Amino acid sequence: MEMIKKIAVLYGGSSSERQISLQSGEGVHKAMKELGYESELLDFKNITNLNELKIYDFVFIALHGFEGEGGELQKNLDDLDILYSGSKAVACRNTWNKRLTKEILKKNNITTPLWLETKLNKQLVEDGLQTCFFDKFRPYKYLFLKPEEDGSSVDIFKISDNESLKNAYQKCINPKRSFLFEEYIEGRELTVTIINKECLPPLEIITTNEFYDYDAKYISDKTLHVEAELTQNELDKIKSISLDAFEALNCNGWARVDLLQDKEKNFYIIEINTVPGMTSHSNVPKSGSFMGLTYSEVVQKIIDASL
Questions:
Q1: Radius of gyration (C-alpha) of the chain in whole angstroms
Q2: Which of 249, 85, 227 is nearest to 241 (CA)?
Q3: 74-96 confidence digits (pLDDT tens)
Q4: Do the Cβ atoms of 115 and 183 come closer than 8 Å?
Q5: How far is CA 2 from CA 53, 58, 61, in A?
Q6: Mean local confidence (pLDDT), 214-238
Q7: Between the CA of residue 69 and those of 61, 171, 234, 256, what are the distances in Å?
Q8: What is the mean pLDDT of residues 252-281?
Q9: CB atoms < 10 A from the CB of 163, how many?
């Protein structure tokens, strides 16, 4: 677009995802230069007034965590008539809160693993998994415990017994917030990138870790991100459910839909990320590469889809 010449890449911030955001921002900034834009990296923690962004034609949000994905930033940018990448405030609020995401998915008849909202406190841990609180999941081999609001697999634990529940409570970085217990779906972990309502080739994530945790996402070189081998029927289904979720949650521009496929070939939406990672390990540029797109071309598609 001719009107877009000067772009601010917003990254960093103060969340638990800061380091990942720095990597995402640096990658996007480099791509902007290659695409011929005048680009500047701006650490969100150094911005005291969003009016500073008015000198730019467009803001590319590479800011992970609540600051970039919770919706407040998007609302404030809209109030200032500043163009930016990705979804509006409502969609960001819908997707940042996993309970709200699941409620909207269920209302729209889109499959998602069963869940229960809870506070992670000493009483819950002392009572253990035998209480009637967990009856809706029975019988089960595992449960996942995850924060209602956070990203990058921070404070996510695989729970199998009372001892693992105690360990999760002890290791949790921030136990005072709201959590979800989520049904364990045995099967394949998949992800679908959507840009401008078009699904890029689905990826399958294969990890040697117990599950796709922070280490598997960003550190381990053993994690594989491969183009998912799916039948045409499965491909049609995964694209359909991903687009349905994208639209039900009012997403715009781009997003990454994370799913599970069980042994009976059914798909379940885990969550939707409105500011997906753009690091060298990230799924969005990897998905684009299976279409023959370079990293920079993926960035250009995201800009175009956001205008």
A1: 19
A2: 249
A3: 999 999 999 999 999 999 999 99
A4: yes
A5: 19, 12, 20
A6: 84
A7: 9, 25, 30, 13
A8: 96
A9: 10
In this prediction, what percent of the chain has a pLDDT beyond 70?
94
Peptide bond into 175 cis (omega under 30): no
β pairing state of 203-206 and 187-195? antiparallel
For the domain spanning 115-183, the CATH number is 3.30.1490.20
Residue written as token pair 């990597």: 23
Q: Within the chain, how many helices (H) and strands (E) appear?
A: 11, 13
Q: Where do the structural domains in the chain lie, given as residue ranges?
A: 6-85, 95-111+187-306, 115-183
Domain 95-111+187-306 in CATH 3.30.470.20: yes
In whole angstroms, what is the distance from residue 274 CA to residue 201 CA? 18
Residues 6 or more apart from 233 whose CB is under 8 A from it? none
211 versus 66: which is more confidently predicted?
66
Alpha helices in 12-88 (DSSP H): 18-35, 66-69, 72-79
Distance CA 21, CA 42 (A): 11
Among 146, 256, 275, which residue's Cα sits nearest to residue 190?
Answer: 256
The set of residues, in sequence order, having a beta carbon less than 8 Å from that of 76 and lying 6+ positions away, is: 50
Give the mean pLDDT of the chain: 93
Locate 160 and state its tokens: 């199998």
- Using the Cα atoms of residue 102, residue 105, residue 106 and residue 111 in order, give the sign of their dihedral: negative
Can you name the CATH fold of 6-85?
A: Rossmann fold (3.40.50)
> How far apart are alpha carbons 295 and 277 in whole angstroms?
12
- What are the φ and ψ backbone dihedral angles of 43, each rounded to 5 degrees? -80, 120
